[in-house]
Write a structure and sequence with these properties.
Blueprint (H helix, E strand, L loop, with lengths): L8 H9 L9 H16 L7 H22 L9 H15 L8 E9 L6 E7 L4 E5 L1 H10 L10 E4 L18 H6 L4 H11 L7 H13 L6 H12 L5 E7 L5 E8 L7 E7 L4 E8 L5 E13 L21
Antiparallel strand pairs: 1-2, 1-9, 2-3, 3-4, 5-6, 6-7, 7-8, 8-9
Helix pairs in contact: 2-3, 2-4, 4-9, 7-9, 8-9
């Protein structure tokens, strides 16, 4: 249910007392204001000397009142407030992370699939190269053999370039090049409009299309802190996103989980495990219609690197050594 801040009698009194007229806020303004307001109101109380209490309370109340008044003309999105607050907190946390630099964007993750044993995946990406070291072939072979040992001979560093020299982009739906990723607007209104305009219609609904594209850009992407803030803010505006609560990811880290459930369309249910403090996406889970786990990806390490391994011959096909057909 969409809830207006005007439903609160205190908010109405604040609005009546405010001599400055306000107009409707954009998604970006609403996201920023609600995030700051939430952080003010949710901050734990600390002990202060009696002589300072009234002054400190007055400052906090004035700040909260000013922000609340600015929000009066807007409304909460249909995303439940608790999930929205978590996403806005993640957006605020992402925005203040340091800007890194290096030759390659590196991500190491653990993948879990019901038809294999857990395995690791590493990627090194630059504007014109894409190297992948995945244990997937060894993991599937081990699962079929009923063992947990991964044969190192089945693990290769692969050059993922296409025959024409191009490489796969970032995102799920629209593949964005490194340059296109860097040129995206960080403002959530403009970002949402551009992504939506470029997405092909899947027939599953615009919210599903946008969800997958944004999540795909948060995974294994060198998105800047400002762009990551915008991506989390865009997710906060998608209806039906719900808060799951505090959970532990596969690496033993405490995380906050949100979910988007599309099972009413015969589509999966998705869970994102994130750290709202720094806006990092720790783990992604995909569930089938019967709530069984389809896939899980846990980010173990990510950041820029100045070096990458050399590609190795493929296991089979052209260039394999010894050469063998697939």
């Amino acid at each position: 249910m969409t809830k207006s801040l005007m439903d609160d009698p205190v908010m109405r009194r604040l609005a009546d007392a405010d001599p400055v007229p306000t107009g409707p806020l954009t998604l970006a303004e609403t996201a920023r204001a609600q995030s700051v307001l939430y952080r003010i109101m949710a901050r734990p109380r600390t002990a202060v000397r009696r002589s300072h209490r009234r002054r400190l309370w007055t400052r906090g109340a004035a700040a909260a009142a000013a922000l609340a008044t600015a929000l009066l003309a807007g409304t909460f999105a249909t995303t439940p407030a608790s999930a929205r607050y978590v996403l806005l907190e993640a957006a605020a946390g992402a925005a203040v992370q340091p800007v890194e630099d290096g030759e390659y964007w590196y991500v190491r993750s653990q993948e879990d699939d019901p038809r294999s044993v857990p395995y690791q995946r590493e990627v090194w990406r630059s504007a014109d190269s894409f190297l992948l070291r995945s244990e997937s072939s060894a993991a599937f072979a081990a699962w079929e053999a009923g063992v947990s040992f991964l044969d190192p001979e089945l693990v290769r560093v692969q050059d993922m370039s296409n025959d024409d020299g191009t490489i796969a982009g970032f995102g799920d739906g629209v593949q964005l090049t490194w340059a296109e990723l860097e040129s995206l607007p960080s403002d959530p209104d403009a970002l949402s409009r551009q992504l939506t305009a470029e997405l092909a219609v899947s027939g599953h609904g615009g919210d599903w299309d946008l969800w997958n594209q944004v999540v795909g850009m948060l995974q294994e992407s060198p998105a800047s802190p400002e762009l990551r803030r915008g991506l989390w803010q865009v997710l906060s505006g998608i209806s039906g996103v719900e808060l799951v609560g505090t959970v532990t990811d596969s690496a033993g880290r405490e995380a906050t989980a949100i979910q988007a459930d599309f099972t009413d369309r015969r589509l999966p249910r998705y869970e994102l495990l994130l750290d709202p403090g720094d806006g990092s996406l720790l783990e992604t889970r995909v569930y089938d219609l019967d709530d069984s786990l389809l896939f899980r990806s846990t980010v173990l390490e990510q950041g820029y690197r100045d070096a990458a391994p050399a590609p190795e011959p493929p296991l089979c096909g052209p260039g394999s050594a010894p050469e063998q057909s697939c």
